[in-house]
Amino acid sequence: MKTRFWINFVLVVTVVCMPGCKKKTPTPEEPEVKETRLMSAEKESFGQTSDGRQIDLYTLTNTNGLRARIMNYGAILVSLEVPDRDGNIADITLGFDALDGYLKEHPYFGAIVGRYANRIGKGRFVLDGTEYKLAANNGENHLHGGIKGFDKVVWKLDDIRAEGAPRTEDSKAIVKMSYISEDGEEGYPGNMACTVTYTLTEDNELKISYEAETDKTTVVNLTNHSYFNLAGQGTGDVLGHELTLNADKYTPVDEGLIPTGEIRSVKDSPMDFTMGMSIGSRIKQVGDGYDHNYVLNSSPDLSLALAARVYEPTSGRVMEIYTTEPGVQLYTGNFLDGSLTGKAGKVYKKHYAFCLETQHFPDSPNKPNFPSAVLLPGQKYTSVTVHKFSTR
Ligand code: GLA
């Protein structure tokens, strides 16, 4: 009897409420209110690795429609959705829809790369008189931390939160992860504890900050290896993107892409992006495309400074990169060859994306004239890179 009363009561209340709950048709004086977006940081399952480790996806959203999805496998930036000049949102990073794609061989899509991003010549270096040997996983050289680098390990979630939610001027959505790389891992000396923090702000910035400490002298160089296409991932090549680099110099390389040690001016060469040029304007003059480290004009100052600005004319999207690092690797997806099918069934062909990997210069452990990448016990390694989005 009692139950019946409550069922009837609920039905009545629902029916009475319904007209009020209906979407209001907007009048010309009263424009339709757009869906309210809130600053948020959320966690959900993204699957499991083959050895049963739980992988989670962290979604950071701001009130302007920017959304970054990050996972604890490789601390990978899985997607980055950004509005164009008309407010249309597109994912501007290459990658895969599901975890599965990331567990197979792929060229570091969105990953945090370490312990040493980029190349170390002949996979060896000497520290305090001891020679350390690393995996030769790129011809005779060592690339991106070795066979199982930081891009292929499961990071631990330390913190996920939305500060100032649902919305204040300085609201932020934050996810922080940590990883302990053991002494001898991939040949590197010292137990190194590191953290990476992704922060999405109301100013449309995605900031990536790194910290590391070691118990033995080691080398460290951490970066994010996102592949960007500001027209939207998988939509075509990036040769029409306009690139400005705040770099008057670069580090020329040998055939194995190891710097020769020279620091050369970009002046009067296809390497010059100081004035802003389309990526494709002179790409045919640099072999397969760009895969070079630029010496930032801020180097070796190490305070946050503008490194690059990229503008995509059809969408109007602009990405600026600020970094505390002395260098940036411009890589134009030269090895993408159509053999990988990524998000939304898009096939990734040559030059379908560009990477701007903020970093210490390649092979610094063997180049005494380059800014040092050595980390001593008791020191704290810190590095910050900000991706700032706007349109024009
Ligand atoms: C970096 C390197 C390139 C290539 C890509 C991954 O950007 O500089 O040579 O190895 O990573 O494919």
Write the layout of secondary structure elements.
Layout: H1 2-21, E1 40-48, E2 54-61, E3 67-71, E4 77-83, E5 89-91, H2 99-103, E6 111-113, E7 119-120, E8 124-127, E9 130-133, E10 142-143, E11 156-163, E12 172-181, E13 192-201, E14 205-214, E15 218-219, E16 223-225, E17 242-245, E18 249-251, E19 264-265, E20 277-278, E21 291-295, E22 305-311, E23 317-323, E24 327-331, E25 340-341, E26 347-348, E27 355-359, E28 374-375, E29 381-391
Antiparallel strand pairs: 1-2, 2-3, 3-4, 4-5, 6-16, 7-10, 8-9, 11-12, 12-13, 13-14, 14-29, 15-28, 17-20, 17-22, 18-19, 18-21, 21-24, 22-23, 23-29, 24-27, 25-26
Question: Which properties best describe this structure?
Answer:
single chain; 392 residues; mainly beta; 9-stranded antiparallel sheet; 5-stranded antiparallel sheet; 29 strands; 6% helix; globular; disordered N terminus; binds alpha-D-galactopyranose
Q: Overview of this structure, please?
A:
The chain has helices spanning 2-21, 99-103; strands at residues 40-48, 54-61, 67-71, 77-83, 89-91, 111-113, 119-120, 124-127, 130-133, 142-143, 156-163, 172-181, 192-201, 205-214, 218-219, 223-225, 242-245, 249-251, 264-265, 277-278, 291-295, 305-311, 317-323, 327-331, 340-341, 347-348, 355-359, 374-375, 381-391. By secondary structure, it is mainly beta. The relative contact order is 0.15. The structure holds alpha-D-galactopyranose (GLA). Residues 107-108, 118, 143, 257, 291, 329, 331, 335, 355, 357 line the site of alpha-D-galactopyranose.
